[in-house]
Amino acid sequence: MRQSKIMMHAGIAAFALTTALCAAPAFAQAAPEETAATDAAVGEDIVVTGSRIRRDPLDQASPVITVDQDALAKTGLTSVADVLQRLPSAAGGLNTKFNNSGNLGNPPDGGGVGAGSSEIDLRYLSAKRTLVLVDGMRFVPGTAGSGMPSTIDLNTIPTNMIARVEVLQSGASPLYGSDAIAGVVNIITVAEQEGLRASAQFGTYRQGDGHTQDYQISYGIKGDATNLVVGASYVKQEAVRSSDRSISQFPNPGQTSCTDPIGGCSSAAVHGRFLGDFGNLTIGNPPNNHPTLADLRPFTAADRFNFAPFNYIMTPSERYGAWLSYKQEVTSNVNLRVKMQYNRRNSENQAAFEPLFIGPDAGNGAGSLFDTLSIDATNPYNPFGYTLSAGKPGEAPQNYSFIARRLVEAGQRTFNQRVDTMVASATLDGSFQVGDHHWYWDVNTVIGFNDAKQSFTGNVNAARVAQAVGPLSQCTGACVPLNLFGGVGSITPDQLAFIAFTQRDRSSQQLYDYTANLSGELFDLPAGPLAFAIGYEHRVQAASFDPDPIVAAGLSADIPALPARGRYNSDEIYGELRVPLLKDKPFFQLLEVDGAVRHASYTITGGSTTYTATGLWKPTSDVLFRGSYATGFRAPSLGELFGARSRFDLPANDPCTSAAGGLFQSNATVRANCIANGVPANGSYAEDQGGQLPVLTKGNANLKPEKSRSMLFGAVYSPQWARSGGGSLSAEVNYYDIRVTNAISAVDANLKLQNCALRGDAASCAQIVRTRNGFINEIDATLENLDAINTHGLDFTLAYRAPPTSFGTFGLAVNATRLLKYTLAASNGFVVIQRAGTERGSPDQAFPKFKGNATLDWSIGGFSAAFTGRYVSAVTEITPERVVQRMDSRFYGDIQLGFSPSFMDHRFKLTAGVNNVFNQDPPGCGSCSLNNYDPTTYDAPGQFGYLRLSYGF
Fold this sequence. Notes:
Largest sheet: 22 strands, antiparallel, barrel
Radius of gyration: 30 Å
Number of strands: 45
Distance between the termini: 34 Å
Number of helices: 12
Structural class: mainly beta
Helix content: under 10%
Shape: elongated
């Protein structure tokens, strides 16, 4: 039945496209904007990412990887972010394999969960240090209804709008400004097209889930002076559930039961956990609508709740996009280009049923009302016959620790995002003659808006819970007494209706960017013209986050949050100069130096000046050497500056517990330090390991800009002999070295726990707030300029295209990165961590020492085939049990076949492919936050097959 449904989807997609297109008269040809290296004839000067000065693309001074439409199509993926995250120099970033809403809370950078978003992170420096441009201009940051992120959501850009992507693998702050520390991703959009282009794709996992539908259509009119292209897209991705993959059945890899010694299951059990002076209990005969003390029994590990199978491995989403590009030749040397785009994303995250924790040791933190609730003796469901007191002023002394209950009756927590992105830009450009030299100018305007709304079902109102468990005499009107002790099924619809609410949050981003550039040649030197570029940029960026009023009032049972908003202006000027020194001399076919400087003034963080110097030497026409030195900066984001207090639930272990794995009983020094930090001396604090600890996050308006220094040395070999007969060969190697200082971060919570317990460090202990019974109520994680990062490695690229033969045309493309070193000097240098070859764990990120991709393709007539191999070397992790564990290497294989019949003038193409053809599962990861694998580095479990019918490509 399931397989027939899959075939029906594929058949409908193919039939609909065929019916619509059979009569189409024109074969579409996309022509990207004139700045494309691929559009230039050999020797023609153009603008390529990495310089504002026009030059021959064969003499590119910076390492740029180009991903064109053909390369995008070979992957079978429906998101450009997923394609870019496969680059060996990329560390991953957020993608649709993340399902953090309700599971981990808000990260400390004020950006929110980012549910449904997709980002690109180069060099493992995080997505916030990779600048994303569209046609060389800024793009509005993403948002997902849970914070104020600084990064771009690549899912907001329709795929068929993209002509190609140029990835500059080098720092470029002097040319492009803030954020370009690790590199620049420049998305070049379609500017010209003639006729119709369309495609329909259906894909699914072998297990019969994760169905994707991708429909793209665009039409272009190309005249002598006018070019108009309009397009639309629709992409739908269905869910892959953790319950349908073996790796994610339990909280830990290989786990088969909550009673396994490794632990990890939640104490917020479906039948409840009641901890206090009366012991550690649960209900013995659920559901019980009249629980008594005699109905209770001891709580055991078997009662804990396995939340793992209630998550998504692949989150469902739906994207609608429409775009327009209009290009008009105003005069013979003046052009106008206008672009507009709109994108709607509907996405969903899901977590297990709400874990309700009530009581002084509940650990909700942030002043939550739930941490101070008492359960009155007159509550008709209180089995103890006396008030369970939280010990507030005016109440009896504290006599219970917490009540934990999984609210199964409320249904799973479901987070739905609706994100609307609107961007419009206008460019007026032209050229004029100054003596014998051409000068070029352009002025640009970009206006962008991102508006996100998130609804969350499954939450409860603390004020109403307080009334429902408080004195019966005060539970009047709509109030219905709440039964927390009767086990699953004992909370009635009337009880739930009184305490439950649908949480509605909203966030927005606005961008107003205005730039002007002038470039050209000043005068001739013996080796060529002295070229320059200068420019000015004025940017206004604003963001806001407004949580539900109930949440803002501190009355939510889930993640606490407060409203936040911020705004800044920047004014920036830059200049670039290229000086040719030698040309057409023995061993010096070309020798030149290039320099750039940029000064930026921010209304919040002040001014910053960066510079770069580049040298390029071509001893022969076949060989090029280059080297560069650059400084860079990143201004603190609005979320980092103004993010309000929230909570991140960090998977971590407390060394002060007396439970197995803790150090309280076995280490006298730890015991003394923990007692000084508020842990009871009698060892009664014995919370199991493998859970989550509340980390309270907050922005900091006093943050300073991050600084960076980067060096790059490389060589390119592109022999003339390989270009004869229609072939080509290019081999390139680059060494990079990047150092970031003043890196914005919070002191690692695990480090604070260790420093406090093992060293008695007063500063660390002061940021760990414990309850009277020793439970951690919160760990402070306010952002500061704390860290320094140093990374260096090698990049390899090889591109070979054989001359046409009677057996067809063959091509090989190889791209690899060797990570030599990645050092994090955290917490003002207090601790130094070597990341290369390791898995960080939550927040998930592997740092493999070697990653490589290779694609071998073949075509003859209307047939084509391609095989892509992707390799990730092994890494090691430190599990929550402090065991060093090896995560083995992975080799993924993707295969694609295509047929474009000649009797239809090659207008149609049928493509079939399978990703992960060898059915490789990701390595199990005990330190990862969810689903027991790292979604930034490895494919979701299972083979993915797809079928695509395209026209005009």
